[in-house]
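Ticket #386: bound-state structure for pyridoxal-5'-phosphate.
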Amino acid sequence: MNRLISYGHQYIDEDDIEAVVEVLRSDFLTQGPKVREFEEVLAKYCGAKYVVVFSSGTAALHGAYFAAGIGDGDEVITSPITFLATANAALFLGARPVFVDIEGDSGNIDAELVEPAITSKTKAIVPVHFAGHPANLKKIAGIARKYNLILIEDACHALGARYLDTTIGDCRYSDMAAFSFHPVKSITTGEGGAVLTNDKEYHERLVMFRHHGITKDKSAFVNKDEGVGQWYYEMQHLGYNYRLTDIQCALGISQLKKLDRFIQKRRHIVNAYNRAFKGNPFFDLPVEKSGVESAWHLYAIRLKDAYKRVKSKIFKELHLRQLGVQVHYIPVHLQPYYQQLGYSRDLCPKAKDFYERQISIPIHQAMSDEDVECVISSLMDVLKHS
Ligand SMILES: *Cc1c(COP(=O)(O)O)cnc(C)c1O
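RESOLUTION: The complex was predicted; output attached.
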């Protein structure tokens, strides 16, 4: 009964375990048929033409930025309310993240503030679908078109989300979308990620980047005369080993079959929370804007003023009650590494305020109805006494 209920957790069943064991008994542990198969089912689910799976969401973002041609001196516009990797991947390539403030309710990048942040060095815009709630893609896509910028979705929270008439990952509004399959995300492969795109050239660059910048495609060779030997391959870029194994892809294929059920489960929990918390004096509830179906990666509450001041006490008390709450996120530019790069602490005041109020309470596919009731009563009790 006193088991920790974490803010996020994987759900693994016997089918998942069998799928993995089957690969362990087969010839290919990596670079085998399961990689292609996972990419195909993911492409089909999302409705994108091409999928390249990566060893993590971070590697996927790095790959997408590389494919986009982001490099030395370029600027990449993104939100500070994200996991560090969104911004770090720009630094990997010598580019500079430019942080734009957020909407106070959704936690997503404020589309109105994107255009004023554009300079002659801007190369790409990377909205993060915070908590699984798609950002204002339509508006941001309009800005990207106007300034000829590349639009990359950090969709790590949002596999299974829908936006207007699209599924996140179909890249209807963007050039590429990156997912993560870390255990707390919509589905898991242990570690893992993917980039989705409808563009053939991005796809080719992503495939090369994942495998040391190597191509074995004769028609793409620089040295045409060398192409005669069957052993021949060319390294054309500085790539990495960012491959996902067949073991992991088998898990991904099995998990993807359950994705719709996982999202339904999350929505069921959201409905229970929304009913229980409606009109409460302690915090504001997460929003779901019209035209959006969130993947509900997080259930992010925002403490009202009186409780914001005692957040660390509330947080500690919730952990004592075995609620594995978390805060998403410390604004990236406030991290010591970014401070040392010269980012002002005064950037993005709404992001700072959001951070000071925000707590992610448990929501995931492995929670029982009793878990949900336990979260509701413990949270309310702690807040009443704060
Ligand atoms: C999880 C996450 C990442 C990084 O994914 P990993 O698979 O952990 O490398 C990047 N961006 C966001 C918004 C994430 O939530």
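RESOLUTION NOTES: The two ends are 24 Å apart (CA to CA).
TICKET STATUS: resolved
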